[in-house]
Predict the structure.
Amino acid sequence: MDENVTPDDDNVVPVKPSPSFRKGSLVRVSRKAYENSLEADASDSNPPEYIFQGPGEILAVKGEYVQLRWRMPVPDVWLRSDQLESWT
């Protein structure tokens, strides 16, 4: 049995492990994962294109959230790690 599933729940949804990002990693935001997220609903309806192009640098990791800094004069942001992909 999967260790992320509790047998008492009727609506069992397995938990996906998020990719492990470390401080200093370069990333960009996955457009597909971001567009239907709670963070997108709470933000401007037209997100800036630079978040999808990257790179953003990870400043801190707390649980499933990471703090990102972009290489331009804009505020740092917190996003869920499952909305990010490695920048190549």
